[in-house]
Design brief:
This protein is of the alpha/beta class and 428 residues long. It has helices spanning 27-35, 45-56, 66-78, 85-110, 134-142, 152-156, 173-185, 189-194, 225-232, 237-253, 271-277, 290-308, 314-335, 349-354, 356-366, 373-385, 398-402, 406-412, 414-417; strands at residues 2-7, 11-16, 124-127, 147-149, 259-264, 282-287, 344-348, 393-394. It comes from Novosphingobium indicum.
């Protein structure tokens, strides 16, 4: 990775990932990883559950159907001979965390009972593929004082742990844990430039489904094509219902009459499950040049491929995500009319870039919240504190880095570009 400085209204670092063309680990790092390969690692479902119970002191997971999904994930990761042990250990730790979250969620939902009576009224839900501007638009709209959002720290842990109480002795322990994670995460400067994940930043509510061991979020954590097929072969409506219950649990902890602004990249291919659970939602889909999405996805997810695979298989990585983006776009086109026309707004990424505050105000008007000076002031304040490029920007080369034929990709995604007049960002 290389970085250089350019000047505009602020000093901006420019990053370029160069390792995709020759993905070789330094000899010292490879030797270090090889030395740990023979250390034992329990990737059994029972081992994960036992550790989660030991961490929390709880034992009731609720319905146990999730273990089938957990087994599918652990089995595919454990059986991948090209993954370093440390990558498998990290994945196992993520599974333990979500199993522990499931235990805490169940305990919270058992008491108090009023959670089920909470109404999530007319949420505004930003939909769009990863790297299409959904996070920026969500955070910008969330700055409006009339709305509330799901912050990263609550997406990570929806309810307190045993013996914890939000705000009793200073900052919420969940916030502190999330902030510590962000401090570690942003040590990788290119990740900080590509995706802010600070505790109060708005995040996708698909995170709330992770303790049910579903959602495509798991695809960002390991190479799991079998898991993708399993996921797409099952109705996600009940898992969206699980996530909604946890959103109600958060609303119960922090009562407010403000409406929710939410977002989820997975929603693009799960509109039926989304609208079944949020029938009065205002759904806002962002449309962007699919090749621009691809070059960003391939770079961001590719960083893990470079770090986690013994012999980084860049071509398999490329094939997976080109296919994945195509599937998601086709699913949106297939199901978009399940959302009532009065509740669906399609907008262009180019409009967000050209006038993000104006586009955000348009979304609010569409959702029944009149534009006003307070709202515009809130958004200008957000933009002032989050200038574009504050953590740097990444330079991409879709053809050079990933050996892709741009004209052929254009033909492959013509079905989408012909339907939505996106600005062409990637040229041959």
């Amino acid at each position: 990775m290389s970085a250089a400085g350019t000047k505009s209204h602020l000093q901006t670092k420019v990053f370029r990932v160069e390792q995709f063309r020759n993905p070789e680990l330094p000899a010292e790092r490879r030797a270090e990883l090889m030395a740990a390969e023979d250390e034992p690692l329990d990737l059994s479902v029972q081992g994960v559950l036992d550790e989660a119970m030991a961490q929390t002191g709880l034992s009731d997971f609720g319905p146990m159907d999730f273990t089938e999904r957990l087994e599918a994930l652990l089995g595919e990761v454990g059986g991948n001979a090209n993954l370093w042990r440390f990558a498998k250990a990290n994945f196992r730790a993520a599974c333990v965390k979500q199993a522990a979250n499931r235990l805490k969620n169940k305990a919270y939902l058992d008491n108090p009972p009023e959670v089920e009576s909470i109404v999530i009224d007319r949420p505004i839900i930003i939909v769009g593929l990863p790297r299409s501007g959904t996070t920026h638009l969500e955070n910008l709209i969330a700055s409006d004082r009339r709305l509330r959002h799901l912050p990263v720290y609550l997406g990570s842990e929806a309810v307190p742990g045993p013996g914890e109480e939000a705000g009793r002795d200073g900052p919420d322990p969940r916030w502190l844990r999330s902030n510590a994670h962000w401090e570690r995460m942003k040590q990788n400067a290119i990740m900080a430039a590509m995706h802010e994940h600070s505790p109060d930043h708005a995040c996708g509510e698909n995170e709330l489904q992770m303790p049910d061991f579903t959602t495509y979020q798991w695809e960002w954590m390991a190479e799991v094509p079998g898991w993708r097929d399993y996921l797409l072969g099952h109705d996600q409506t009940p898992h969206y219902a699980y996530g909604k219950r946890m959103l109600k649990a958060i609303a119960n902890q922090f009562p407010s009459d403000r409406r929710w602004i939410l977002k989820g990249n997975q929603h693009s291919e799960q509109l039926l499950a989304l609208i079944a659970n949020y029938p009065d939602a205002y759904v806002v889909q962002i449309h962007r040049d699919p090749l621009a999405i691809l070059q960003s996805v391939l770079t961001m997810r590719g960083l893990s491929v470079l770090a986690h695979q013994k012999h980084p298989d860049i071509q398999a990585h490329v094939a997976y995500w080109v296919d994945r983006i195509e599937r998601m776009l086709k699913a949106y086109l297939r199901d978009m009319d399940c959302v009532p026309q009065s509740q669906r707004l399609d907008i262009l990424f180019g409009d967000v870039i050209a006038d993000d505050v104006g586009t955000a105000q348009r979304v609010l008007e569409f959702s029944g919240l009149p534009s006003n000076e307070d709202s515009r002031a809130d958004m200008r304040a957000y933009m002032d504190s989050h200038p574009r490029g504050k953590d740097g920007r990444v330079v991409y080369d879709l053809a050079g880095d990933f050996n892709l034929d741009i004209p052929a990709l254009r033909d492959r995604f013509a079905f989408y570009v012909d339907r939505f007049p996106v600005k062409i960002e990637v040229k041959a």
